[in-house]
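Friendly challenge for the regulars: who can give me the structure tokens for this chain first? No prize, just bragging rights.
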Amino acid sequence: MNRISGAIRCGDEAERLFSVTDLARDLGITARTLRFYEDRGLIAPRRVASARVYSNRERARMILVLRGKTLGFSLREIKDYLDLYDADPAHETQRRALLVKIAERRTSLDEQRSAIDQALAGLDDLERDARAGLDHS
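First reply, four minutes later:
Bragging rights claimed.
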């Protein structure tokens, strides 16, 4: 396949386009991952002939998607966040929604941490009892 990545002129400004392979390599993911997020409506590459090409906008969206997934946000939450970007040029709605989701995610992680701490304490007790039982054998 021809390498599509490069700069093209769009009006007065140059826009960089990435092929599937180049963008996947750039982001450290697979081409299949890009197609997955495209199928979910999170990115919308253009077509040049029969090839998909990704703009800087799609690259930026993928960076946000990957970051959101790393932080534990659902695809639905990420999509809602990305959709707000186009709806509000000042991005105030997007930022407010993000702050709400951050607070919710933080609460969820704090609850998980508490549950993990309790489980670890229970394992410590069980291990201590098992060792003490072996010492008395």
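Strands lie at 6-10, 13-19, 46-48, 51-55. Residues 92-135 form the longest helix (44 residues). Your move, everyone else.
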